[in-house]
Specification:
CATH superfamily of the largest domain: Intergrase catalytic core
Order of helices and strands: HHHHHHHHEEEHHHHH
Number of domains: 2
Helix content: 40-55%
Strand order of the largest sheet: 1-2-3
Oligomer: single chain
Number of strands: 3
Structural class: mainly alpha
Distance between the termini: 119 Å
Length: about 350
């Protein structure tokens, strides 16, 4: 009896010690990581919210911050592609639990053509995702920003402006042929001249309104809602002023300059402007000075390049192109000279030469 009693007490002590150790291990395992700022650790969600609801809130935030609607529209497909990437993982991940390694994998995916993503695409998509998580952390949808330490890939070297030559070349047709063809369609002519003689982007052409255009003989100008909410006033070249006068003569004093052919009074999208001008360029075989196919944005490059060749200084070109940062304008520069407004008025072209070619 004594031996049995002694063995029972020893057994009870060992069993008790095992229970205590088990509880201690479980308590340690349940503690949060000791280094919650490690970049590959997923962020805990303060409150679970669907991605679509988060995007809607983020979209409104971007608009309140003054981002242009065209810029906000480019964010949506990039961020939804990110969310689709998380959902397609072998173990689907909620967007609030993503880590920086998920973003690295997202940017390493192949493009639609099968090759690697372009450096520009990586930079834009990385910046879009990083911005979303920075906002989500500030909005207390995350307990920390999991992308704070992520370094967005650089876009690489600055692009070279690809201007369109005036005359035809062995590689293709030039501005004279494009303008001659555009003269048969007043809407196309105005879109081309807004890019060629005012440097407007497709989104700026689409958003331009009649009430923002002053066509008087003295100081004709227009107000432009530029990229990133940057508002600017652009001097109208006489060629462009005359084209707008004829195009808007029978129109109301309010409304979009480029009317929607299917829904009058509602305006068009930047995609529509790019499609119409791009179709004309492809049909004519319009090329740049480098022999590459011209795009609607090549009209803006041509505008900036011609100002540079007239000797306009970099700051005046920046104002004419409505660049927020001077570094964006540096790609056009090879010299310096006088002010932008007078240079725009001295750019070649009038109602007689526009039909040349």
């Amino acid at each position: 009896m004594l031996r049995c009693s002694t063995w029972s007490r020893s057994h009870l002590r060992a069993w008790t010690l095992g229970v205590v150790l088990g509880v201690a291990v479980a308590a340690v395992a349940s503690q949060p990581p000791t280094h919650p700022d490690v970049e590959d650790t997923p962020a805990a969600a303060a409150a679970v919210i669907s991605f679509s609801a988060a995007w809607e809130r983020y979209r409104l935030y971007l608009i309140e911050q003054g981002r242009a609607s065209s810029t906000v529209c480019t964010y949506r497909p990039r961020l939804y592609a990110w969310n689709d990437h998380l959902a397609a993982k072998r173990r689907p991940t909620h967007w609030q639990k993503a880590a920086s390694k998920d973003l690295t994998a997202f940017l390493a995916r192949p493009s639609d053509r099968g090759g690697p993503l372009a450096a520009t695409t990586k930079a834009k998509e990385g910046a879009a995702v990083k911005g979303l998580y920075r906002w989500a952390y500030d909005a207390e949808l995350l307990t920390r920003d999991p992308m704070a330490a992520f370094r967005v890939p650089r876009q690489g070297h600055a692009p070279i402006p690809r201007a369109i030559p005036w005359g035809d070349t062995p590689d293709g047709t030039g501005m004279a042929t494009l303008l001659g063809y555009a003269a048969t369609d007043p809407a196309l002519e105005v879109m081309v001249l807004l890019g060629y003689r005012a440097g407007l982007r497709c989104a700026e052409i689409a958003s331009l309104r009649i009430e923002d255009v002053w066509l008087g003989d003295e100081d004709p100008r227009m107000r432009v809602d530029g990229k990133g909410g940057y508002e600017g006033v652009v001097t109208l070249h006489p060629w462009l002023r005359d084209a707008l006068r004829g195009f808007l003569a029978a129109r109301s004093t309010r409304g979009p300059v480029i009317d929607n052919p299917r829904a009058p009074g509602q305006g068009v999208t930047a995609k529509h402007v790019g499609r119409v001008v791009g179709r004309a360029m492809r049909g004519l075989g319009t090329t740049t000075e480098f022999g590459t196919p011209a795009t609607p944005h090549s009209l803006r490059h041509t505008f900036g390049t011609e100002l540079r060749r007239l000797g306009v200084n970099v700051d005046d070109i920046r104002r004419a192109l409505r660049h927020r940062h001077l570094s964006s304008t540096q790609i056009y520069m090879e010299g310096a000279g006088e002010g932008g407004r007078r240079a725009i008025l001295t750019l070649p072209g009038d109602r007689r030469t526009r039909r040349a070619g």
